Amino acid sequence: LMKKNKMKIARISMDMSQQELADKVGATRQTIGMIESGKYNPTLNLCIAICKALGKTLDEIFWEEETKEEKKTYTESELREIMKTIGNMLGDKEA
Fold first, then answer.
1. Mean pLDDT over the full length of the chain
2. pLDDT tens profile 36-79
3. What residue spans of 1-95 are helical by DSSP H?
4. Number of other residues whose CB lies within 10 A of the CB of residue 48
C-alpha cells in the first residue's frame, strides 16, 4: 500500500501521466498502473528507472515503513534468552 501511494504521489506531483512515466522507463502504462495498485512487484532495474524518472531515491518511493502491528514485542523471558545467546556468541558467559 505504501509504495503505490508514494509512487503515484511522486508521479502526479511531477504532472506526469502513467503513460509518460511508462515511456520514460521503457514499460507499459498497464505495468505502471499495476505497480501503483500493488498488483505487480517491479524488478530492481525498473524500480531504479522509476526513481530516476521521478527524481526520487529508492527509499523515498519503495521503502515500506513498518506499522506498529508488524513490530515484534518481546516478553522479559524472551529478552533474557536473547541476551544470553548474544553473550554466548561474544564469549561472555556472564550475560
1. 86
2. 988 999 999 999 999 999 999 999 998 876 665 566 778 889 88
3. 2-13, 18-25, 29-36, 44-54, 58-62, 76-89
4. 15
Q: How far apart are CA 93 and CA 85, in angstroms?
A: 9
In the structure grid, which three cell numbers stand for residue 6, read together? Answer: 508514494
d(CA 60, CA 53): 13
Question: Is this prediction's pTM over 0.70?
Answer: no
Q: 29-36 and 18-25 helices cross at what angle (nearest 10)?
A: 110
* Higher per-residue pLDDT: 45 or 5: 45
Question: Rounded to whole angstroms, what are the CA distances from 65 to 3, 7, 30, 79, 91?
Answer: 10, 14, 26, 24, 35
